[in-house]
Write a structure and sequence with these properties.
The chain has helices at about 30-45, 55-60, 65-70, 70-80, 80-95, 100-105, 115-120, 130-140, 140-155, 195-200, 225-235, 245-250, and strands at about 15-20, 25, 180-185, 205-210, 215-220, 240. By secondary structure, the chain is of the alpha/beta class. It folds into 3 domains: about 30-95, DNA polymerase, domain 1, CATH 1.10.150; about 100-160; about 180-250, Rossmann fold. The strands form 2 sheets. The chain has a 4-stranded parallel sheet with strand order 4-3-5-6, sandwiched between helices. A two-stranded antiparallel ribbon has the order 1-2. The model has no long low-confidence stretch (mean pLDDT about 90).
Length: about 260
């Protein structure tokens, strides 16, 4: 049986590949394939309809800024349609109203998604206020904080600050008004913890990864009496065994 040899170079940009945890990665941030995927994620996150993989390729987009630099004529000629050009321009114009809550997850920063953005929105009003202390106060972990600050200084201030956004966070009226939740173990009522955290945030709860002094609710759907559960019992913290039912009973339905 002939051994399979791992490739040495990226098939997209021909850069040398590097091993990380038994997987091969292209570490060239300008790799066309990676750039394409980042633009796809950005457009999907901001709900820019009509800017899918095929359109991005036809339009020859190479950065986030290039989305907002396009003219009607350029779009019309690339997509061969006046109707599509008008609709896409409307979508792009509308996306400029996006808050930092939506923008931050769109930039493909490792470990920085919707939950992290919501946490930050409780401590800062604009991305220009970002620093390590604010990240810590918002409950971001060390690695997430490191990734976010590296992005802020290396990418945002260097280039992305010129994008046509206000870079301000929005704060919901309910935010962090109902209590602080900690989730222990695997969930049954939601597919992922990230999904549960998003729903909790929409319903006015803050989520923390450990039991701190301000935690008021512990979610334990596994039935296993974990260390967190014992701590919650000792402190008199409310223990919820079905998060979906808890939110449903409280609101009549889950947002």
């Amino acid at each position: 049986m002939q051994a399979i040899e791992a490739p040495e170079f990226c098939p997209s940009c021909d850069s040398s590949l590097e091993w990380k945890n038994d997987l091969l990665y292209c570490v060239n941030s300008l790799c066309p394939a990676q750039v394409q995927k980042r633009i796809e994620h950005f457009a999907k996150s901001l709900k820019i309809k009509g800017l899918g993989p095929k359109s991005i390729e036809k339009l020859g987009l190479s950065s986030f800024q290039s989305i907002y630099d396009m003219t009607y004529l350029e779009i019309r000629d690339a997509l061969s349609s006046e109707k599509l050009a008008i609709k896409l321009l409307q979508e792009i114009t509308h996306s400029k109203k996006s808050s930092m809550n939506e923008l931050l997850p769109a930039f493909s920063i490792p470990l920085i998604g919707k939950t992290a953005a919501e946490k930050l929105s409780t401590k800062i009003n604009n991305i220009s206020e970002l620093n390590a202390d604010k990240c810590k106060a918002a409950g971001l972990g060390p690695k997430a904080t490191e990734n976010l600050l590296n992005w802020y200084f290396d990418e945002f201030l260097f280039d992305l600050v010129r994008l046509p956004f206000g870079f301000s966070f929005t704060k919901s009226e309910q935010q962090v008004s109902k209590g602080v939740v900690c989730i222990s173990g695997k969930l049954k009522s939601f597919k992922t913890k990230a999904q549960a955290q998003e729903v909790l945030a929409k319903n006015g709860y803050e989520v923390k990864s450990s039991i701190t002094k301000d935690v008021t609710i512990l979610v334990n759907e596994s039935g296993i009496e974990s260390a967190k559960t014992k701590t919650a019992q000792d402190k008199g913290i409310t223990i919820v065994t079905n998060l979906l039912e808890f939110l449903g009973e409280e609101n009549g339905n889950v947002a």
